[in-house]
Design goal:
Layout (H helix, E strand, L loop, with lengths): L1 E5 L2 E5 L4 E7 L12 E6 L2 E2 L4 E2 L6 E4 L10 E7 L11 E6 L10 H14 L20 E4 L7 E6 L6 E2 L13 E3 L4 E5 L2 H7 L5 E3 L5 E3 L9 H40 L10 E7 L2 E6 L7 H6 L10 H21 L4 E2 L8 E3 L5 E3 L6 E2 L8 E2 L12 H6 L1 E2 L1 H17 L4 E2 L2 E2 H8 L19 H14 L10 H14 L7
Parallel strand pairs: 11-13, 12-14, 13-15, 14-16
Antiparallel strand pairs: 1-2, 2-8, 3-7, 3-9, 4-5, 4-6, 4-8, 10-11, 17-18, 19-22, 20-21, 23-24, 25-26
Helix pairs in contact: 5-7, 5-10, 7-9, 9-10
């Protein structure tokens, strides 16, 4: 792409459809009589209203639809008659629109590999398109990527994959297949004729060793009498073994559940609800916790009881701090450490002494190793609006997932709004209303401005860091507790009990 750059003009010569984005922000504190106001003309089309900028507030100017049908694209920025200062631009990006119509894997290959996936119940990352995007091709697959055609599957490695039964004839439907590895499975029968034919003088290589019941040619696959007798013995022994195994698993599950419960009775912290005991009735396990007479944080923030006085900022900070200290304990001090998985305002309770305690440990997940980056779970457990993106999307869970949920709780403490209200999440609502830099638009009006503005800003910044999309960018609960203590100190209140 080629550009001409003049003081206020940007020209691109490119035959494809493009989208241009101009990034602008006022970098100077203007004098009272200074005005910076300008129009943007994109290929002769002028914006409806002139642009004015706010100090250090970024904005982006772009065309909604791609430009097309031009040999060059001309962006011009012109100061208005009222302007005393020239236009300003901070950055400029240009994107070419590329069609995605032909990037998917060949449809015949897709049908064949999906049939193979279903037959053998493959549980690897075999989801979405098999070959595209290239960096996310299915495990064990190698694909070819022709410039003018769709990707094709050229190699499949399913060795040691726990495959059983006969070899799927759908392998033969993958026309560009050059290598197939089926070693070390429990496949039986013979190689399908269509697949075998492609190995005879053709480009296909098949590896099928360590499959004891698989015939390697077209000869009869009848078992010898000795083998038949062995199989008969196996048919008798295996069901008995399975019954014994199922019985052992049932006993193991009962033992594990009881040992979950026993572990929880050993967790003691002033800001965690104490587990008094548990009761098992058949398949049902009940946990008995201490009574918390003052209810939960959600009800106190929403004012569901008309007789309840709205929480003051100092009270909210103290509740948040004590909750953070409780979560920090299960992240760091427990052995093994735990992830709560369902941090939310309704799970933060207060006792008669107005001490905040985190509740509902029935969903906790333990880490087995100090160097674990995450724990992969089979399904998402938690509450909508509080789930960290890496957990909700990829089922990857670690202590930073709790930090994200706590960040949502902290936003509720500051704004008084629920995690989700009319399909709008509190994190999006907060970021939208902070664009103007006026924190009074975000803070819960029921606090009647009775707070240290610096402390509120710091708490709000902390909440936004906790809800960063990247887990590595979020603080630890230890750091969260320390920063909340600092916010409380700004209010002139000592948090020592």
């Amino acid at each position: 792409m080629e550009y001409e750059v003049n003081p206020s003009r940007f020209i691109s010569r490119n035959p494809v459809r493009c989208i241009g984005i101009l990034y602008v922000a006022e970098l100077q504190i203007l004098a009272s009589n200074d005005v910076r106001e300008f129009n943007v003309i994109a290929n002769g089309k002028k914006n409806k209203l002139p642009y004015t900028l706010e100090y250090l507030v970024a904005d982006a100017i772009s065309n909604r639809e791609p430009h097309h049908g031009y040999n060059q694209y001309n962006y011009t920025m012109i100061a208005t008659a009222n302007s005393t200062l020239p236009p300003i631009i901070n950055a400029f990006e240009y994107f070419s629109v590329i069609s995605t119509a032909n990037v998917g894997t060949d449809s015949q290959d897709v049908s064949a590999i999906n049939a193979i996936k279903a037959k053998y119940h493959v549980k690897k990352n075999w989801m979405g398109d098999p070959c595209a995007p290239k960096n996310f091709a299915w495990d064990g697959l190698t694909c070819s990527y022709a410039i003018s055609g769709r990707p094709r599957i050229t190699s499949i490695n399913m060795s040691s994959g726990g495959l059983s039964g006969d070899i799927s004839p759908y392998f033969a439907d993958i026309k560009d297949l050059q290598y197939l590895d089926l070693t070390a499975n429990q496949l039986s029968g013979s190689i399908p004729p269509g697949l075998l034919k492609r190995t005879q003088g053709g480009p296909l290589v098949i590896r099928y060793g360590n499959n004891p019941n698989l015939c390697s040619n077209n000869s009869s696959c009848q078992l010898t009498k000795k083998k038949t007798n062995s199989m008969l013995a196996a048919y008798i022994v295996v069901p008995v073994f399975v019954v014994l195994l199922i019985g052992a698993l049932v006993v193991l599950v009962i033992f594990i559940r009881r040992r979950e419960a026993q572990t929880l009775t050993k967790i003691h912290h002033k800001n965690l609800i104490s587990l008094i005991g548990y009761c098992k009735d058949g398949k049902y396990l009940a946990l008995v916790y201490e009574h918390m007479s003052e209810g939960n944080l959600e009800d106190k923030l929403r004012g569901k009881d008309s007789n309840v006085v709205p929480l003051a900022w100092r009270q909210r900070l103290r509740i948040a701090l004590e909750s953070a200290e409780g979560l920090d304990y299960i992240h760091k001090a427990c052995s093994p450490p735990f992830v709560h998985r369902d941090v939310k305002t309704s799970n933060i309770l207060q006792n008669a002494n107005l001490e905040a305690k985190v509740a509902d440990f029935g969903l906790m997940k333990a880490f087995n190793h100090d160097d674990d980056t995450h724990v992969s779970t089979a399904r998402v457990i938690g509450t909508r609006g509080y789930l960290a993106p890496e957990y909700a999307i990829a089922l990857q869970l670690n202590e930073k997932s709790d930090v994200y949920s706590f960040g949502i709780v902290l936003l509720e403490v500051i704004t008084g709004r629920p995690a989700i209200q009319q399909s709008d999440e509190v994190i999006h609502w907060t970021r939208l209303h902070l664009k103007g830099g006026n924190i009074e638009e975000v803070v819960d009006t029921r606090m009647q401005c009775d707070y240290n503005i610096n402390g509120v800003w710091k708490a709000l910044d902390l909440a936004l860091k906790c809800t960063d999309h990247a887990p590595a960018q979020r603080p630890t609960m230890t750091n969260v507790a320390a920063q909340l203590q600092y916010c409380l100190d700004l209010e002139g209140e000592d948090h020592t009990r």
